[in-house]
Amino acid sequence: DTKQLLRCITKGFFPNAAYLHYSGVYKTIRGNQDLYIHPHSCLYTLKQPQ
Protein backbone atom coordinates (compact mmCIF):
# COMPACT_ATOMS: atom_id res chain seq x y z
CA ASP A 1 0.00 0.00 0.00
CA THR A 2 1.54 3.30 -1.13
CA LYS A 3 -0.10 5.34 1.63
CA GLN A 4 1.42 3.16 4.37
CA LEU A 5 4.83 3.31 2.71
CA LEU A 6 4.73 7.13 2.57
CA ARG A 7 3.70 7.31 6.23
CA CYS A 8 6.58 5.05 7.19
CA ILE A 9 9.13 7.10 5.23
CA THR A 10 7.79 10.37 6.65
CA LYS A 11 7.88 9.04 10.20
CA GLY A 12 11.50 7.97 9.76
CA PHE A 13 12.68 11.28 8.31
CA PHE A 14 10.85 13.62 10.70
CA PRO A 15 13.40 13.39 13.55
CA ASN A 16 15.99 14.72 11.05
CA ALA A 17 13.84 17.63 9.87
CA ALA A 18 15.20 21.13 10.46
CA TYR A 19 14.36 24.76 9.79
CA LEU A 20 16.50 27.82 9.20
CA HIS A 21 16.44 29.96 12.35
CA TYR A 22 16.50 33.75 11.98
CA SER A 23 20.02 33.69 13.48
CA GLY A 24 21.26 31.85 10.36
CA VAL A 25 21.64 28.47 12.06
CA TYR A 26 19.61 25.41 11.15
CA LYS A 27 17.73 23.90 14.12
CA THR A 28 16.02 20.55 14.54
CA ILE A 29 12.23 20.52 14.68
CA ARG A 30 12.39 18.23 17.71
CA GLY A 31 14.79 19.36 20.42
CA ASN A 32 15.72 22.69 18.83
CA GLN A 33 19.38 21.65 18.51
CA ASP A 34 21.78 23.64 16.34
CA LEU A 35 22.79 21.97 13.07
CA TYR A 36 25.49 22.86 10.60
CA ILE A 37 26.09 21.65 7.05
CA HIS A 38 29.27 19.59 6.78
CA PRO A 39 32.00 21.29 4.69
CA HIS A 40 32.18 18.26 2.37
CA SER A 41 28.43 18.38 1.67
CA CYS A 42 27.28 19.48 -1.79
CA LEU A 43 24.99 21.96 0.01
CA TYR A 44 27.86 23.68 1.84
CA THR A 45 28.67 26.16 -0.95
CA LEU A 46 25.06 27.12 -1.66
CA LYS A 47 23.67 30.39 -0.34
CA GLN A 48 21.17 30.11 2.49
CA PRO A 49 17.56 30.89 1.57
CA GLN A 50 16.37 34.37 2.45
Automatic annotation (TrEMBL):
Domain annotation DEAD-box helicase OB fold: ranges: 6-45
UniProt-listed Pfam families: OB_NTP_bind (PF07717)
InterPro entries to which the protein is assigned, alphabetical: DEAD-box_helicase_OB_fold
Protein name from the UniProt record: DEAD-box helicase OB fold domain-containing protein
Source species: Bracon brevicornis
